[in-house]
Amino acid sequence: MATQRAAATRHDSSELIPRSDQPLPTGPDKVVAVRAMFDTIAPNYDKVNRIMTGRLDVRWRRTTVDALGLAPTSLIADLAAGTGDLVYELERHGMSAVGVDLSMGMLSAAPRPFPRAQGDAMALPFPDGSLDGVTCGFALRNFESLPPFFEELARVLRPGGRIGLLEVGQPSNPVLKFGYEQYFGRVVPRIGAMFSDARAYAYLPRSVEYLPEPDETLSLIGAAGFDRGHHRQLSGGIAQLFTATRHRG
């Protein structure tokens, strides 16, 4: 009976995810769609991720934590923490980490316990200036709006605190870009349909349209109270990493 209820819940949630013939949602509708999508795909999220990226996502998360340049014992919040991959990587580096995610389904699907809370990245449950760093993996395109998100990061970080924001990218090499677009737009949805939810994994490639250009993203980060902003392409540009430091003044 419990299994039947869980399956019915996932089915109901998937109905909230826009179909390929529907426009991408904005505002509060986007928040509802994103929560529904991740609640739906949570049970097999890690498996599909590893298949889709050939385990490159593991390397990208390690690079993100290294790029923070923070000392062990630093206190870090990982946003859109999902099943805890970045939290585990932060802990392997000796840091104290807490994960925050909008989707309770994702947090509940974690393979082992970690400090976590369900919450909205636009209103984080941390006091002003209380964190040494913030990480976020593959979620910039899922937030309702980026300027208030970056402002919220600035609020919770101490002066000199660091951010590491990992996201999908767009290769600059034309041949690599063409192959990547074919893979992300055609193969990824099929993998998702095979192991998880077809509608969700058709939406994911489309969600890249939400992302501003890297220079614009860096400008938004700077305007929110950060300096030393840096954009880095990973694995030929199929992923990208933004880092920056909270103003000391």
Tell me the strand order in the biggest sheet.
3-2-1-4-5-7-6
Q: Mean pLDDT score, rounded?
A: 90
* Major β-sheet profile: 7 strands, mixed
In terms of per-residue confidence, which ranges show pLDDT below 50 for 5 or more consecutive residues? 1-11
Q: Report the strand count.
A: 7
What form results from the Cα inertia axes? Answer: globular
Q: Total number of helical segments?
A: 10
| Class based on secondary structure composition and strand pairing | alpha/beta
The span between the termini is 57 Å
State Rg. 17 Å
User: Helicity level, as a percent range?
Assistant: 40-55%
Q: Per DSSP, what share of the residues sits in E-state strands of 2 or more residues?
A: 15-25%
Order of helices and strands: HHHHEHEHEEHEHHHEE
What does this structure look like?
It is a single chain. Helix 1 packs antiparallel against helix 2 (about 25-40) and helix 7 packs across helix 10. This protein has about 250 residues and is α/β, with parallel strands linked by helices. Strands 3-2-1-4-5-7-6 form a 7-stranded mixed sheet, with helices on both faces. The relative contact order is 0.15. The chain is built from 10 helices and 7 strands.
List the helices and strands and how they pair.
Layout: H1 2-14, H2 27-41, H3 45-53, H4 56-68, E1 75-79, H5 85-92, E2 96-101, H6 104-108, E3 116-118, E4 131-137, H7 146-156, E5 157-168, H8 174-195, H9 198-206, H10 214-223, E6 226-234, E7 239-246
Parallel strand pairs: 1-2, 1-4, 2-3, 4-5
Antiparallel strand pairs: 5-7, 6-7
